[in-house]
Amino acid sequence: MTWVYGYAGMRRLVASLLTVVGFLAYGDLGRAEGTCRANDSNDIEYLIFWPPLPGATPGSYGSVEDFAARLGTTGDGTTRQLGYGASIPVLVRDESKIAQEIKQGFDTAKRTNVAVHFNVDDHIGWEERPDLWNWYDPAKRGYNPDNRKNVEWYDWEGTPNRRRYFTPEGTSAPAPHMCYNSAAIEIEISRIVSQVVAPALQEEINKLKQENKEYLFAGITVGAEAGFDDYSVIRMLPRIRRSSDPMQMQVAKMLTQAATLMGEDKAPQSRLGYCSLTNAGYSKTNPPRDINQVLADVNQKFIEFWNKLFVDAKIPCSRIYTHVAASAPQDENNNAPIRIVFNPYARPGWTTYPIETLENGFQPLYDQLAKHGNPAWGGVEANATFAKPNALSWEKYLAWHYNHGAKLVGINIGASDPSLMSNLIKGAFGDPAIAAYKKFLKGEKLVER
Fold first, then answer.
1. How far apart are CA 145 and CA 166, in angstroms?
2. Is residue 349 within 8 Å of 221, Cβ to Cβ?
3. Each residue of 171-204: b (16+ CB within 10 Å) or e?
4. What confidence tens digit (pLDDT) does each residue in 337-369 have?
């Protein structure tokens, strides 16, 4: 997991960088008030660590047991529980990998007594499925000109995207930007979740039930900060390059790389989203009054679509979390605002780095939670030291979550920039953080100073 920038549109990231110095037991399937309310009050609180864990080799689940030993406890399996993160590949060529990864995750959980929490990427990693996106190259696998209906467009004329020049991961991607409400995309996602992913999950969950170890399934985060790329921010490069701020310099490097790739493809430096807008009933002669509002609605429906598939497959909504960046400015340019995580089929989940909107605390989250009846929620991608190492107490940061209804916090150290990743690692596995983790897992009250 490497969503280090918090995705809600690169324009908002760049604008912020230009103005901010130094940036950067399951219960039933019960639902009410448009949110998942199952087992809100008495559910287990999970502390999850996304890979890589200290000492792990790339691509492995190694060191889970060693890390648990360092903490001295894995929790009681009833009120608080340690867990680790794993990924479920979905849009892959060889679908046997899906069941293999799920089984490996559960096997590791049973071997270490550390719960497994899976991540499902809903829109970035589909490079192995050119049969869905290759609209432009007859010489390569999967070519079909109709695939242009499955990728995003730059304009009302339907100029399709060829590849993503930056993503929530802070890097480019070989596959195009997905058209979230494409009929063919929805059909294929429905097939994979209902016929491949869900059966494999259910098989392993049933094994846990037989062993009275249901607590070792911490659920799934469905999503990867979905939003709509806006490449018009490339035009801001000359201004950013004049900055001496390290983070702005990093963004300038990323945008420069994006501009180079766009030049190779002769891609327009403009926003995406017109495929989704067209499918939603809009056109050049009938444009939306507020394009970002409509795209936010498309995004919300896309998230809900995925969540409902898992609930329909009998995965409890209390074990499903959404994933949207909460720190991005909640302004009129945001097509992935905090509010779009609420739906009847999942618990709301956000990236909760203490920056920008969340720099002074989580009140913006608490306000939205209150509007929806204060359901249980999760900080599915979190790290107290994202921007300013040692500026925020780890105990206080965890308390901002758990003392206010969070049932899951996922500590992330992945980053596309080596120096940022180094800071995240030092923070997440430093002595103050370890002390806070131990206090939480032992059932002690976290203090908000």
1. 24
2. yes
3. ebbebbbbbbbbeebeebbeebbeebbbebbeeb
4. 999 999 999 999 999 999 889 999 999 999 999
